[in-house]
Amino acid sequence: MTLIYNIGIALYSFLIGLVSPFNQKAKLLKNGRKESLKLLKSISLQGPVVWIHAASLGEFEQGRPIIEALKKDYPQYKVVLTFFSPSGYEVRKNYDLADYVFYLPADTKRNAKKLIDAINSEKVFFIKYEFWYHYLNALKRKNIPVYGVSMIFREKQSFFQWYGGWFKKMLNCFAKFYVQDETSGQLLSGIGVENYSVAGDTRFDRVRDIAKASAEIDLVDRFVGDCNKVIVAGSTWAPDEDILLEYLEKEGQDVKLVIAPHEIHESHIKQIESKLSVPYFRYTKQVENITDCRVLIIDTIGMLSSIYKYGQVAYIGGGFGVGIHNTLEAATYSMPVFFGPNYKKFREARDLIEVGGGFSIQNGSEFQIGMGQLWADEEYLKDASLKAGQYVNKMCGATRKIMDEVF
């Protein structure tokens, strides 16, 4: 199995190099890994070091509360942050709380030794799904504890199959797993792995902290005015936008919409505008009669988490594609969330539906019915809002639990 794994790693690296002239992400990954290996020759860290590895941006957001708590409580520690994916590294390569940020070199025995010797970390955190055979084994040989943060396990994973012996060896390299739910713990226990704790998901701590520090946005405040029927739609794609704009045209005569599309390039913004027959404006192109407009298009990034607080109901995009985006950023403000049918891989979405703070729709008609029920019954809206907020608050605390145990 180790030979097959090594061949797979080598083949993947070869294919990345092969397609890099034609694919931007592959090019970034190839060049980034090369730069990482150069960096390891000159890296210099004084004092104790913690290494945190995240696959991409979503996993980084789960590891971020750990980094922030670490820098606050134990500022003597240096932080090395690595990414597997360009979509994580390219966004957070200048993250100011990390002393070094770079791509994780390919998982070979040689690379693992180089990295671990260079950073000489005292503790290591792997976030959610990360399992790299050579890195984990090299860390175990050097008696460096590895902690799995916000990890979630599923029955179909290789660890739990009849052929899973080799994969289980990677689990034995961890000092402790901090899993998201009881099901993950039971799966580990079922194969004799008992060094776990059900801590929850550190993302809940992250969204709570974001909400507490959210900025006031004067333009959005003026647009909303005294309207008490405001929908904030985040990370939307074309199918989501069609549903929202159709609803606004047919049913939402006294409703205002703030829409923050996932893609903000000019052609997509113009596509949204072409579907609108009600007064609207872009965030970056203000108009005089802001309060008369029915739609505000957010055509810039980094604002969505602060904008949710201006609405009564949230719509989360992506549910008619590969999967929904972040529901927690909205729910933390105690607002019910709507999303499309492709949500089942996302535990928090399933939980929000179960507690009554989330609603999945199959089409525009279902969205119109759902919104109509909320607007028509003030107590129903208030109850759904309360349940969404209570769910997030109840799930907070994973970061503190991990920090108290590990440090």
Automatic annotation (TrEMBL):
Keyword match Hydrolase: no
Enzyme class: transferase
Domain called 3-deoxy-D-manno-octulosonic-acid transferase N-terminal: residue spans: 35-205
EC number in record: 2.4.99.12
Keywords carried by this UniProt record: Cell membrane, Lipopolysaccharide biosynthesis, Membrane, Transferase, Transmembrane, Transmembrane helix
Record's catalysed reaction(s): lipid IVA (E. coli) + CMP-3-deoxy-beta-D-manno-octulosonate = alpha-Kdo-(2->6)-lipid IVA (E. coli) + CMP + H(+)
Pathway participation: Bacterial outer membrane biogenesis; LPS core biosynthesis
GO molecular function list: transferase activity
Keyword Cell membrane: yes
Record's subcellular location: Cell membrane
Job of this protein: Involved in lipopolysaccharide (LPS) biosynthesis. Catalyzes the transfer of 3-deoxy-D-manno-octulosonate (Kdo) residue(s) from CMP-Kdo to lipid IV(A), the tetraacyldisaccharide-1,4'-bisphosphate precursor of lipid A.
Name the UniProt record assigns to this protein: 3-deoxy-D-manno-octulosonic acid transferase
Biological classification of the source: Bacteria, Pseudomonadati, Bacteroidota, Bacteroidia, Marinilabiliales
